[in-house]
Records
---
Amino acid sequence: MRSMTKLFSKASVFFGFVMLAAASTASADEWQVDRNRSTLGFEVINNGNTVTGTFGTWDAKILFDDQDLESTQIQATIITGSVQTEDAQAAGAITTAQWLDISSYPDAVFRVDNVVPAGGDLYEAAGTLELRGAKIAVFLPFTLTIEGDTAHAVGEAKLSRSDFNIGDGVPESTVGDNVTVTLDLYATR
């Protein structure tokens, strides 16, 4: 009988921790991306010209409460084959094995580990981008305005294409190593 009491006691403690963990993640609001208004893009220098592009297919799971940033959970999944650019030369090459290699790496995933306030409507997100088999730490400063049940976030992250072996062998004098990822996101809760 005593061992049953200990078992129930341990089970109660375990389930207590599970319920506490569930309550802490449940306190954040779940946000749904407005795909019609949101864009995820990039800029890179190619032969001295700025080339811009967007990803047409991506989504994000967002749990966010500006009063409880520790409960924030964000994960964005980008379908690499949905990349679009008006630069004809870049459009012909960007999906190939030397660049995004969409057949071997059909998606990229950005996971946010930490969000901190940086004054006013500015926040800083730290996370990891998994792209072409590499996992690299990424810093994303963004502005955020929330009006009622609508949020608008605008941010830029600076990446190095060589960190992900993108365009391996192409000199920086031809295609810049620095890539700016741009985010203009609208979401509702």
---
Amino acid sequence: MKTHARLLVAAACLAASAAYADDFHGFDPAKFDGNMLSAEALKAMAADASKVTPPKNGGKYSIGFANLQRDIAFGVLVEKGIQANADAAGVELVVADNRLDGPTALANAKSFAERKVDYVIEFQTDANFGQTVMDVFKQDGTKVTAIDIPMPGASFFGVNNPKSGFMGGSYLATAAAKQFGADTVKSGYLVIGALPQSGVIPRMRPTTSSRSIRRTRCRNPIPR
């Protein structure tokens, strides 16, 4: 739930402009623990934001969320969390499925633009389509937050890729040694999965994972 709370609060703050950055219903980005805020706080944020940037439909905010893929466990959890926060804030959430596919993400972006959503949260994995998707939103000035895979001109919401990759590799090597024995691990291989289409930023994770695994004196892991 923490990730989803941050995304909705970020959307509200950006809609409300920098005027509320220092005092937005007690919200302090430096101290925010990521837990879902109360419905009262979320509704108050949405109400204040709408005074600065009125909803395009004249009613309540409509936020487009293009999920990575709706039928995988992680995508389901992310969507449920964002939906819960949107419901609490009284915000309409328009959900689309990018299906791990660039052309599909572009079609979804055009659909969001036609529906005149006020803000977009993009979770799409094909870095080659990042600029094309953003061009759709730039035409009417729709702001975007990109999850995990950066998109030109969008706010980025993601992990510290080198750090998380290093931590993941260390934990993987330690768990493998415990499960199979240190000697087996030193002479064996650990396979690391990755999606090359996601671009150079997410690729930092498997790259640093490989380095941390090598420090355990394993044979070179095989990236996939």
---
Amino acid sequence: MLPFLRQSFLYSLILILALSCKTYKLTDVKPASTSEKTVENLYFSSGEDYVYKCQMDIYKNHVSGILIIKKLNETTHRVALTSDFGNKLIDFEVSENDFKLNYVLPDLDKKIVINFLKNDFRQLLKRRYPVNESFENENARIYLSKIGNMSYYLFFSKENGLLKEIVYTKNNKEKINFTFDAKKPIFADSLNLQHKDFKINIKLFQITETE
């Protein structure tokens, strides 16, 4: 399993040089007034363990395991991925500004693999977003947050107020789309992470739930 995983990441790096992402634009929305200065992704804000069944599709290859996310403090989370048989694959700590690799299986100890996981989980676990503009459509209130050359579009359901999607762009190009299914603001029952410039998709499904 691990050799093809490594090869897939290397293959994807080559392909990215030949692929271009589409410029991201909101459609069917209208400007909305707001007093919000910041909005938050609270799905990983609890101090309890978040335990998910993880399914990762890399091109036509499929990898599954158990993913555990734990909040260590206000800025840092610890992330550990094991195989379905309980063998540790990778263990790291990540925040917006720091990254510490605690363990990685030798077959996964490649710069592209580490950078891929570091960036994806750094974006997923980002909590606070300054609000630059707000919009709305029939189903959602949408907040645009600009940080340097990165932009985030956060979609909050009008029905229950919960965060249901984050679109991450860089230089106006769509990079990653996060979609959430949740019943409460601090815990996502399932999560789908879809790359737009790699043929990589990660799905997380609840195993245990925080209170």
---
Amino acid sequence: MTLGRAETRTISIAASPARVVEYLADPLHLPDWAPGFATAVDHDHDDIWRVHTEAGPQRVAVRVAAAHGVVDVVSADAPTVGLFTRVVPNLAGAELIFSLFFPEDTDPSAVDAQMAVVGEELRTVRERVESAR
């Protein structure tokens, strides 16, 4: 069995965990907080969505377990590939945790570049959720 390289980033958000999950659970928000990934989103069926990217359309599954603070945006065809998020209480607010997994042989500069994008995405989610209060 080959494990991937895990990279995780977090950000504190001055909003309830439920509010953060509610925002992330709506795939139509993807182009807003992840514009480098999604230029538009269309519903396919059930929890499957068509995400329009610069490289062409991709099918993703948006898996939500709101009571557990889970919103995962994963490949519809390879559900172990994608973005895994958790929202947990942080005193009066929330902590948003994004985790990605990379094949062991991924170039470190590619990982660094992707994680810089993740940092921007986290800041955008915080800005959107906090401004919606």
